[in-house]
Amino acid sequence: MITVKMVSGFIDRIAPYSTKCEWDNCGLLVGNADSEVRRVGFCLDLTSETLDEAKKNNVDLIVTHHPIIFRAQKNFLSGNMAYELAKSGINAISAHTCFDCADGGVNDYLCSLFSIRNSVGVESEESVRPMARVGDIDPLEPDELASFVAEKLNTTVRLVEGKGTITRVAVCGGAGMCFANEVISCGAQGYITGDISHHEMLEAKEKGLTVVAAGHFETEYYSMASLQKMINKEFPELETVLLSQSNPVRFIKYKD
Fold this sequence. Notes:
globular; about 20% strand; 11 strands
């Protein structure tokens, strides 16, 4: 019999919960560690959409990237995702920043997707283990890099154009601009991440760093399939499903 504890223990080995950022919440967040697991669902976020699909697929354990319980809460009422999980008898594990920095995790997946060679971790005081990655690519101009990323992720991106041709690029899924100074110090002329604010755009421009903001959802969602494959290899008798999730953000273009 495979238990929630066994699955959680495996995730803890490949993406140690202890490597999460101080503000993060990883590990078994809802459920019973000793309960049996037959079918596991994987998703970026637990939403009513992914929970409904999990129920239809008879999932008894959900593994998410973003924590189901993130900030302190004073109550758990009907409609709250943690409450709805417990009510449905579904266990939940979250592997957030610990999987961002793990070998084969979110940012290694992005390196592979973008054909980044000789990638290494970017050391930073922001994380226990290197989270962002930096490596070499064939020379690209800023707009070429943006188009390449947009094609690979099948999305619309935002571009901050820095200075010159890019031969060394850094990646960090989600909100990675806190590592901007470190990736510059590693020799990166370009940086691919998910979120970037207006003021971060201005700072990047002033520093000559090309930044491609490809979306929080887009830079993290597909890497959950990597975690699914790792679980499949470790527990071949388990049934797994990648729960479908739509991007909550839509892009509306004005038409004259």
